[in-house]
Specification:
It is a single chain. Helix content is 60%, strand content 8%. It is of the alpha/beta class and 650 residues long. The chain has 2 domains: 19-334, ABC transporter type 1, transmembrane domain (ABC transporter transmembrane region fold); 356-366 and 422-648, Rossmann fold. The strands form 2 sheets. It has a 6-stranded mixed β-sheet with strand order 6-7-8-3-9-10, with helices on both faces. It has a 4-stranded antiparallel β-sheet with strand order 2-1-4-5, with helices on one face. A hairpin with a 2-residue loop joins strand 4 (463-468) and strand 5. The radius of gyration is 35 Å and the shape is elongated.
C-alpha cells in the first residue's frame, strides 16, 4: 500500500457548503413536481403510521388476547399482521412511482438545459474544456442532483418523520424507558460521524484508483490509442500498467468491504448497549409489575426502528450537502456566458449571393476564464486524472524565461520563419466577390485556418468586421449563416453510423436521388455501391473503416448536399494516393463551380485557378494578387512556389 493512502480526513474538509441561493434555485427545479412531492409526503406519513401499528398489535396479542384465550380476536389480529405489510407494500410501490417520476423528470430537465447551453457555446469553449468533464456534468453531476431531490431529501424526511413518531409513541408507552434509550444518543452520533468519515475517506480513495484505471482504459482502448500501442509495440507494458491499477482497485475494494463490515459491527455494539439498558430496566419493571410483557416487546420493536432512523439522520448533513453541490456543478454550466451571441433583432440571410468581406480583422485566442468551467473538487469522487500514464499533475517544466516570455518567442526572434506569436490574426482585409475563388497560402501556422474559422462564426474577431452580402456576421441569425456556408475541414469527422446518416446530416429531408447525386458529384457513389451494405455501411469510429480519401469525398458529398453559396475548405490532399487525389480534385472543381470559395490551397492547380491569392505570414496578409503577379514580386510567395509547388508543374 502506498503511504498515506488510507489517512483519515476531517469532517470539515469533506462537507461542502450549501447556500440559501442554491437551495432556492434547486426548489425551482422541483416546482413542476410539487404534486408528486406532496404525494410522496402523504405516502411517507401513511407508511410510518402503518409501521407503528405492528408492535401495538403484538402488545395487545401478548397482554390481552393470549391470557384471555380469545380465538376470534387472535384471528383478526393475525389477519391484520398480514394486511399491514401488504398495504405497506402497495404504498411503497406508489411512493416509488412518484419518486422515480420526480427523479427522472429532474434528470430530464437538467440534461436538456445543460445540452442546450453547451450547443450554444463557441468553439473556444470546447478547445479549452475536456470532453470527460462535460460528460461528468451531464451524467455524474446530473444524477447527483437528482439524488438530492428524489433520494436524499426523501430519506431525510422519512427518517425525521419516523424518528419523531416513534419517540412520541415510545413516550406514551413508557417515558422512563424512552429516556434511557435516548441516553446513548451522544455515543451513537459520535460513533456514526467518526466511522462515517473513515468510510467516506476510503470511498474517495476508491474513486481515485478507479478513475486511474478507467482513464487508462479510455486512453488505450479507443481507436487512436490502440493504434499507437500497436505501432510502438507497447502491449506488454500497457498490460502491466493496467494490472497494477486494477490491483489497486482490488485492494481498495477489499479494504472498503472490511472497514464497512467493521462499521456495522461497531454500530451494532453501540445499539446493543441501548437495547440492553432498555430490556434490563424494562425487565425489572415487568418483574415489579410496573407494566406488562407486551409493552416491553412493543418497546423493543420501536427501539430498533428508532435507531435505524437515527442512523440515517446522522449522515444526512454531509449526504445532503454533497448531493446539493452536484446542483452547483450543473448550474455552473447553465450559467456560462456565451461569447457567440445572436442578436434579438438579427436578420435572416435570404437569396445569398456570396459576397464576403474582411475589414481590418484582428483576432487572438486569449481565453476569457468566465466562459470556461472551473476546475472542481467533487466530494466523494476523484474523476480528474490529469496525467494518465505518468500519474503526475500534467504540468511539465516551465517553458518561460525569467522575463516571462516563452521559449517559442525567443526562437521566433532568432528564426524569421517561426510562426509563434500572441496575436493569431492582425489587420486582415480582403473582398471575395460572388463566385470568386480565393486561395490562402503560407507557412504552417500562419493563420490560414483561423481565417476560415471566423467565416461561420466559430469565433468572433477581437477587432474589425466581417460582412456577408453587406451584412455584418453579428447582425444575421446563426441558423441562416450556417445554411449559407459549407465547410470541409482538414480533419474529416464522421459519426459512428451509416454513410447515409453521415450524408443527410447536412440535409435531413434529402431524398435518395439527392443523396446519390451529391455522392456522384463527389466521386464516391461508385465506391459506396461496391460495398456490401451500400449507403447503409457503418463507417466506424470517426470513420476509421474508410481511407483518408474516401472520408474526404464523403465530406465533400455532405457539403454538396447542403448546397451552400459560400464554400470554405482545407484542400488537404498531400497524404492521399494519386488516384484518391485525382478524384478529389475533380470533385472540388464541381463543388466550387458557381460558389464563392475560400480555400487553403495545397495544390498548384487550385492556386492557378484562383481569382485572388492571399499570402499569409505570422497572422498577416503580406502579399496578394494572381500567380504571375506574386511571382513577379519575388517575395514569400515566390519562395513557397520554389519549395512547395514547383514540383507539380507539368
Amino acid at each position: 500500500m502506498r503511504h498515506g493512502l488510507f489517512q483519515s480526513i476531517r469532517a470539515g474538509d469533506e462537507k461542502p457548503k450549501v447556500t440559501r441561493e442554491l437551495l432556492l434555485r434547486v426548489l425551482k427545479y422541483a416546482r413542476p413536481y410539487w404534486w408528486h412531492i406532496a404525494g410522496m409526503l402523504v405516502t411517507i406519513l401513511l407508511s410510518t403510521g402503518l409501521s407503528l401499528l405492528t408492535p401495538l398489535i403484538f402488545r395487545n396479542m401478548i397482554d390481552v388476547v393470549l391470557p384471555a384465550k380469545d380465538t376470534d380476536r387472535l384471528i383478526w389480529l393475525g389477519l391484520a399482521l398480514l394486511f399491514i405489510p401488504a398495504l405497506n407494500g402497495g404504498i411503497s410501490v406508489i411512493q416509488r412511482r412518484l419518486n422515480s417520476t420526480v427523479g427522472e423528470g429532474v434528470i430530464y430537465d437538467l440534461r436538456s438545459s445543460l445540452f442546450a447551453r453547451l450547443q450554444r457555446m463557441s468553439l473556444r469553449f470546447f478547445t479549452n474544456t475536456k470532453t470527460g468533464e462535460l460528460m461528468s456534468r451531464l451524467n455524474g453531476d446530473v444524477v447527483g442532483a437528482q439524488n438530492a431531490i428524489s433520494s436524499t431529501i426523501v430519506n431525510i424526511i422519512t427518517n425525521f418523520v419516523e424518528a419523531a413518531a416513534l419517540l412520541a409513541v415510545m413516550l406514551t408507552l413508557e417515558w422512563r424507558l424512552t429516556l434511557v434509550s435516548i441516553l446513548i444518543l451522544p455515543l451513537f452520533i459520535i460513533t456514526a460521524q467518526r466511522l462515517g468519515n473513515v468510510l467516506r475517506d476510503i470511498a474517495r480513495q476508491a474513486m481515485d484508483v478507479n478513475a486511474q484505471m478507467n482513464a487508462h482504459m479510455n486512453e488505450t482502448l479507443n481507436i487512436g490509442g490502440a493504434l499507437l500501442v500497436k505501432l510502438f509495440g507497447r502491449a506488454r507494458e500497457e498490460e502491466k500498467r493496467f494490472r497494477e491499477r486494477a490491483a489497486n482497485v482490488r485492494d481498495m475494494g477489499i479494504r472498503r468491504a472490511v472497514v464497512g463490515s467493521s462499521f456495522f459491527v461497531i454500530f451494532g455494539l453501540v445499539t446493543a448497549v441501548g437495547t440492553a439498558l432498555v430490556y434490563g430496566l424494562g425487565g425489572y419493571f415487568v418483574i415489579t409489575d410496573v407494566f406488562t410483557i407486551g409493552t416491553i416487546v412493543a418497546f423493543g420493536s420501536y427501539l430498533g426502528q428508532l435507531y435505524g432512523a437515527l442512523q440515517g439522520l446522522a449522515g444526512a448533513p454531509v449526504e445532503f450537502s454533497t448531493s446539493m453541490v452536484s446542483f452547483e456543478r450543473v448550474f455552473e454550466v447553465v450559467d456560462l456566458p456565451q461569447d457567440i451571441i445572436e442578436k434579438e433583432d438579427a436578420v435572416e440571410l435570404r437569396d445569398v449571393k456570396g459576397e464576403l468581406e474582411f475589414q481590418n480583422v484582428t483576432f487572438n485566442y486569449k481565453v476569457d476564464e468566465s466562459i470556461l468551467l472551473k476546475e472542481v473538487k467533487r466530494y466523494g469522487k476523484h474523476e480528474d486524472v490529469r496525467a494518465v500514464f505518468s500519474g503526475g499533475n500534467g504540468q511539465g517544466p516551465s517553458t518561460k524565461n525569467q522575463d516571462g516570455r516563452s521559449a517559442a518567442s525567443d526562437s521566433a526572434e532568432a528564426d524569421f520563419t517561426s510562426q509563434a506569436r500572441d496575436i493569431a490574426l492582425e489587420g486582415i482585409s480582403f473582398l471575395a466577390r460572388p463566385g470568386q475563388l480565393i486561395a490562402l497560402v503560407g507557412p504552417s501556422g500562419a493563420g490560414k485556418t483561423t481565417v476560415t474559422y471566423l467565416i461561420p462564426r466559430l469565433y468572433d474577431p477581437s477587432e474589425g468586421l466581417i460582412r456577408i452580402d453587406g451584412h455584418g456576421l453579428k447582425d444575421v441569425t446563426l441558423e441562416s449563416l450556417s445554411a449559407a456556408i459549407g465547410m470541409v475541414t482538414q480533419e474529416t469527422y464522421l459519426f459512428h453510423d451509416t454513410i447515409r446518416t453521415n450524408l443527410i446530416y447536412a440535409k435531413p429531408d434529402a431524398t435518395q436521388e439527392e443523396i446519390e447525386s451529391a455522392a456522384r458529384a463527389a466521386n464516391i457513389h461508385n465506391f459506396i455501391m461496391d460495398l456490401s451494405d451500400g449507403y447503409e455501411t457503418i463507417v466506424g469510429e470517426r470513420g476509421y473503416r474508410l481511407s483518408g480519401g474516401e472520408k474526404q469525398r464523403i465530406a465533400l458529398a455532405r457539403v454538396i448536399l447542403k448546397d451552400p453559396r459560400i464554400l470554405v475548405l482545407d484542400e488537404a490532399t498531400s497524404s492521399l494516393d494519386s488516384e484518391s487525389e485525382a478524384l478529389i480534385q475533380d470533385a472540388l472543381k464541381r463543388v466550387m463551380a458557381g460558389r464563392t470559395s475560400i480555400v487553403i490551397a495545397h495544390r498548384l492547380s487550385t492556386i492557378l485557378a484562383a481569382d485572388l491569392i492571399l499570402v499569409m505570414d505570422r497572422g498577416r496578409i503580406v502579399e496578394r494578387g494572381t500567380h504571375d503577379e506574386l511571382l513577379a514580386q519575388n517575395g514569400l510567395y515566390a519562395q513557397l512556389y520554389e519549395t512547395q509547388f514547383r514540383g507539380e508543374r507539368v
